[in-house]
Amino acid sequence: MSGQQPSETSSASAALKRFDAPLAMVVSLALATGAGAAVIRPAAPAEAVESGVPVVTLTFDDGNIDQLLGAEILDRHGLDGTFYVQSGALNMEGYLATSDLTRLQNAGHEIGSHTTGHVDLSSVSTDEAIRQACTDRANLADLGFVTTSLAYPYAGFSESAREAVEECGFNSARLLGDLQSPDGCTDCPPTESIPPLDPFALRAPAQVSEGWTLEDLKGLVTQAQDAGSGWMPITFHRVCETAGCSTIGVTTETLEAFADYLESEVQAGAIDVRTVDSVIGGAAKPIRDGDWAPGQTATDGNRVVNPGLEEWPTGASAPTCWDTNSWGTHTAKFTRVDSGMKMVVDVSNYESGSSSLMQKLDLGECAPAAEPGAQYVLSATHTSTVDTQFAVYVRDARGAWRYWESSPWFDPSAASSEATWTTPALPADATALSFGLTVFSNGSLTLNSSSMVVVKPGEPTPTPTPTPTATATATPTPTATATPTPTATATATPTPTPTATGTPTPTPTAAPTKTPKPTKTPKPTSTPKPTPPPANLKCNAKWTFHDAYDRYGNWGYYLDPTGTYSYDPWEKYYFWDNGFIKNGNAPKCKVP
């Protein structure tokens, strides 16, 4: 999955082989409106640390569900960490649930912010940066978590990003790569100072990646000890039971050994381990209650921003207010032609998924505003060598983006053609739409312009473009993912991340037939539950992961090497099985 959200690094075009992190597509943003945001009284001030020994802080970015494994390791060794989460990804596939945050907070860990939708705050307007930072803090406050610390996604820093973070009431914001580290700067300072030189540009080493060893992690601690004092924030993302689950992952074995080492150093009085908030100190500032600019609003006429793709930022891989969106296993290439008036989406090496150009899934800078219950005429001028259809995403009243609908199919067309479709009535909580013509097989599509116009009450519904009856193709259902995530963070999004999230499971490609295409993308059906095994099994060993809940809720069980049923000891742990992310059920056996 690429689309939106991988790690703290991003790629516009690549062979898409696996999903690594947070939903750029993040395809999830949680927007707390002015009416819904709660005003929280400031919490009691935290005392800034005054330690004569180096301070180590363990931070976890993106809010991936496997970070619960890391929290359990920290808990066993009496260590507290800071978990920077995206409120827009909460309760999404592959991400922490609200109940998980409660559990973390009750165990002594700090809940921090990573913006609403894992957005590089240095790449958007000040207004959008404020929406992303303030909305995230307000959303988390609504859920009972008063946050004081933020981590910049992708370590994207600018003066406008800093301004947004300060305006939203945070006490600090963390960067990456500004201290000495195995993968990064060699001539940077060894530690951050206490108090920091700039609390809204906290310096930290490069993020931990899969190539880091236990000795590399210990080296950061001894680096701080050699400096005599100072602060060493260490940034983790994914926590993997086995090596290779993510390019920005750490194995549980390595993290366990590192936590054991930290515990012994704390007991020896050689270091202190603290959360970010406990190092910075200070009172939690009041929560803003939605008094920021709303962004795009409902208007007559075409609501698509930059509909003809004329505006292109210098060096950008997509037009202003548009994003390349890909998921599944194939090679996607996006090419600007005719001086930026057109965009070619070319797919090769196809196995699964789709690629498209869509309006940005944001909180108001670009996404076309929409009203609950309204219908919209979507149109796009294009040429295509393959069948195509509109995929439509909707943002709900809290800003969470999700896949919603697909149009009928449109035939290939060598000449410029306009695909037109009128949507059903929007859901009752809809606030915005994003749509695009998708490529589901080897071939290419050239997009020239797009339009989204509301159907006014009393107006006749426009006649849609006839559905073709050409050769059928597989019809995967594009589903919002939550990107992801990292190195500078989401494997996403890799987004621009994606930002981290499960990858949609496409319908297997079948040999072409002459049967008519479906009128819209069919929804997956649930697989009947098999008869469960006895509930008193003992988890005497870790099982080989095989089956469980998949992205569409289909049911299966974990299998041990002999093929008999068993259960996963980690509730809600997600994993890869034949290229698809699966989710585990609650334990039914006693964990050893």
Automatic annotation (TrEMBL):
<dbReference type="InterPro" id="IPR002509">
    <property type="entry name" value="NODB_dom"/>
</dbReference>
<dbReference type="Pfam" id="PF01522">
    <property type="entry name" value="Polysacc_deac_1"/>
</dbReference>
<feature type="region of interest" description="Disordered">
    <location>
        <begin position="455"/>
        <end position="535"/>
    </location>
</feature>
<dbReference type="GO" id="GO:0016810">
    <property type="term" value="F:hydrolase activity, acting on carbon-nitrogen (but not peptide) bonds"/>
</dbReference>
<feature type="compositionally biased region" description="Pro residues">
    <location>
        <begin position="519"/>
        <end position="535"/>
    </location>
</feature>
<feature type="domain" description="NodB homology">
    <location>
        <begin position="54"/>
        <end position="276"/>
    </location>
</feature>
<dbReference type="InterPro" id="IPR011330">
    <property type="entry name" value="Glyco_hydro/deAcase_b/a-brl"/>
</dbReference>
<dbReference type="GO" id="GO:0005975">
    <property type="term" value="P:carbohydrate metabolic process"/>
</dbReference>
<keyword id="KW-0732">Signal</keyword>
<dbReference type="InterPro" id="IPR051398">
    <property type="entry name" value="Polysacch_Deacetylase"/>
</dbReference>
<feature type="compositionally biased region" description="Low complexity">
    <location>
        <begin position="468"/>
        <end position="518"/>
    </location>
</feature>
<protein>
    <submittedName>
        <fullName>Peptidoglycan/xylan/chitin deacetylase (PgdA/CDA1 family)</fullName>
    </submittedName>
</protein>
